[in-house]
Amino acid sequence: MPVMTQSSLAVSVDGVSWVVLNASPDIGVQLQRTPQLHPRSLRDTPIAAVVLTNGDIDHIAGLLTLREKTAFTLYTTSAGGEIVETNSVFNVLDPALVARQTVHLDQGFEPVSGLTVTPFAVPGKVALFLEDADALDLEAVGEQTVGLMLEAGGKRVAYVPGCAAIPDWLRKRLEGIDLLLFDGTVWENDDMPRSGTGQKTGARMGHVALNGAGGSLAGFADLPARKVLVHINNTNPVLQPDSPERAAVQTAGWEIAHDGMAITP
Q: What's CA 88's distance to the chain center, in Å?
């Protein structure tokens, strides 16, 4: 099984200016492996913006790697922005170079010319380190977990790396898209307990399973868009090349994202 890095995507409409969706802890390795994102001169970066979908550690820790005196704009919802603003470690992002912009649900913005990004709420929970055990909603709908609708050149792509359920209104929201990049964290809700790697279920972590009546394979069976799984946990058997779970995913019309994967919708 090949080694896979974590959940970050880079998007461009011109191949020159890039928008990074979520900054994973290993983003430095990802940048090294991606020539399009290499500096073109001293203190340069092709990264014009970073957009966060939630405040999970595996989506924000990489911001600390992007602190090297290069300019970009950080886009977050108010919930995500509060995490960055109130944690002093993120002060290493020089405010003279890293502008912080608050985005709003269902309101599009242009992080680079020609690309419109619209955040929309999906079922999810707050980041693990912000949990209140006495008032924890695993399928809350608000600014704590969002999907992103990307639109450019007449194409529409939905990026949803974290999602706790697939209600009818979400399926309706995704009608007519060209590409879906969706949460593939777990195959079954109990992947981690069964494998002996942890006690948390997919639902407890805020992720819907792939398999089963309420899973994403069934939930999006009628969606005609190209469908790609992202944010796949290392316990998920779909990563095993010869597993029946991988075959089931492919039979259902899904692809499995991998390091270096390039997609032109």
A: 24
Name beta bridge partners: 12: none
Residues 121, 122, 123, 128: is their CA dihedral positive or negative?
A: negative
Task: Give the pair of three-digit tokens for residue 24.
Answer: 């994973």
Higher pLDDT, 1 or 166: 166
Pair 181, 160: CB distance under 8 Å: yes
Sign of CA dihedral 110, 111, 113, 118: negative
Q: State both tokens at 95.
A: 């405010």
Please tell me whether residue 157 adopts helix, strand or coil conformation.
Answer: strand
Q: Is the pLDDT of residue 133 over 80?
A: no
Q: Is the pLDDT of residue 1 over 50?
A: no
3-class secondary-structure state, position 124? strand
Give the Cα separation of 22 and 13 in Å (integer).
Answer: 18
In this prediction, residue 68 carries a pLDDT of: 80
In whole angstroms, give the CA distance from residue 137 to residue 123.
Answer: 10
Tell me how far apart the alpha carbons of residues 262 and 265 are, in angstroms, rounded to a whole number.
10
What stretches of 9-145 adopt beta strand conformation (E)?
9-11, 18-21, 47-51, 72-76, 98-102, 109-112, 115-121
- For residues 124 and 74, what is the distance between their CA atoms, to the nearest angstrom? 22
